[in-house]
Amino acid sequence: MSGDQEGTGSRSPGGDERLQKGRLGCAHLQMEMTKRACTHANSKVDCRNYDGSVPVSLHSGGKRAAQMEGDDLYRLRDRKFLLEDKKRLCALALGAALLGILLMILHTEMCPYVYKPGTNVALIINCSISLSTGCLLIFIIAFHYKDIRLFIIDQNQVDWRIAMTSHRVFVITLELLACAIHPVGTYWEVGLHGNSSSSPPLCDSNHHNTALADLELLLSVLMFLRLYLVHRAVLLHSKVLLSASYRSIGSLNNINFTFRFVLKVLMNKYPARTLLVFILFFWLTASWMLTLCESRQTAGSTDHMETALWLIAITFLTVGYGDVAPNTRCGKSVCLFTGVMGVACTAMLVAVVTKKLALNKGEKHVHFFMLDIQISKGIRHAAANVLRECWLLHRANLTKGTRGEHRRHQRCLLEAIRVFRHLRLKQRKLRDYVSEMVDLPKMQMIMCDLSANWNNSYRELEQRILSMEQKLEELSRCFQETSKLLSQVLRHRNQEIR
After folding, report:
1. Angle ∠(217,223,224) on CA atoms, nearest 5
2. Is there a contact between 267 and 344 (Cβ–Cβ < 8 Å)?
3. Cα distance between the two ends of the chain
């Protein structure tokens, strides 16, 4: 018992040391985890461990702390959150832009019928347009802020001013200017006429506010520049950009996921649907713009929506009957732009229709196979006709028929030979065209089969060579043994002879 107690007493100091080391290791691990959490939170206060006894300083002089092992994971998480924020802000900006355009259209359509001198309806709608424009500008600034943060994370930079290149500043300024455009003629009208009940509405084109109406018309038309946000929304919400497999394979092949790439993907997957949506939207927008341009200046035939839609359609399709024509410079500009877009869209439409009407690979194989069978039958019939005409001509020579009958058989023979040659030429052209249609995967498959056969034959040849070498070794061993036996027999025979 005393020995056991002495043994226990001798082991207890070592156990206490191990317990103390384990506690120190846990405290050190907790301190490291607290440091990483504080580094990721980007806070400037002091962080403590779980016991509250060890203060840890995060920043020194406002500089970023040293990169740790989990920084890459934090960067990936921040990048994912920033992409989600960019998608959300882009959707909000597009919604604000469309709301402003709808309010502008409502303001323009209500102007000749609802607005009366002294009413504040136009002022209320214009205030709503200005409010939506302010929200749109805020969303755009927030979007570019998130974009700059994303650039900093991707490039692993420290200073945000590195991302502010001249091109980026120019793009941001241009976007803000394009989105800030909205009709402000109502404010000027209120400032000029005050609250007088005798002030005419702005939509009346008289000698007092003609310049102001022209300015409001121009600003209303330029509000459609906000529709550039559509391509950004399509890019950020497309399945191509959201798919991790697309991005990984694209990065391996040095492909930039821009709107052009997304548009190409959409045109390859849904060509007819994409073109139809774009054409209908363009027709409606251009028709309304043409109606607005023509109604403010003259009371012609194109100041109605259905007439303007007819003019835009025939201009877009490059028909141009000449029964309707624009009268103002604004209307002529809209028709000119419509004609240019019509040429491009018509070319794409023709390409899409051609692709839809073209035969696929299986249909081509079936079609050309049946053509080859029909031509082969025609060749056999033509060959039979040549033999028949030769026999008839030979019989006419033997019976010594008339010269007219002899010439008739010669003409029939030449015609049969011509048909036979024509069908042979047609068959050769068809087979040449079919041979040109052999695609690369089929040739690759054939080459793979050939290489596999060559490898198999090479392995068989190696096995045969090895078996022959083994047999040769066995033969050489047998020869050596027989030579030994012969030498022993001869030696024993010589001894007997002696």
Report:
1. 110
2. no
3. 96
**How many helices (H) and strands (E) are present in the chain, helices listed first?**
16, 2
Global confidence as pTM: 0.58
What is the per-residue pLDDT across 171-209, written as a single tens digit (0 to 9) for each?
999 999 999 988 876 666 555 554 444 444 555 544 445
Cα 77 to Cα 73: distance, rounded to the nearest angstrom:
6
**Cα separation of 466 and 353, whole Å?**
63
Closest CA to 123 of 138, 152, 103: 103
Q: What are phi and psi of 55, to 5 degrees?
A: -80, 140
Task: Select from 250, 244, 260 the least CA-distant residue to 79.
Answer: 244
Chain centroid, CA 216 distance in Å: 39
Q: What is the DSSP string of 41-89?
A: HT--S-EE-TTS--EE---BTTBPPPP-TTHHHHHHHHHHHHHHHHHHH
pLDDT tens-digit map of 436-476: 665 656 777 788 888 888 988 989 999 999 999 999 999 99
How far from chain centre, in Å, is Cα 314? 32
Give the CA diameter of the chain: 161
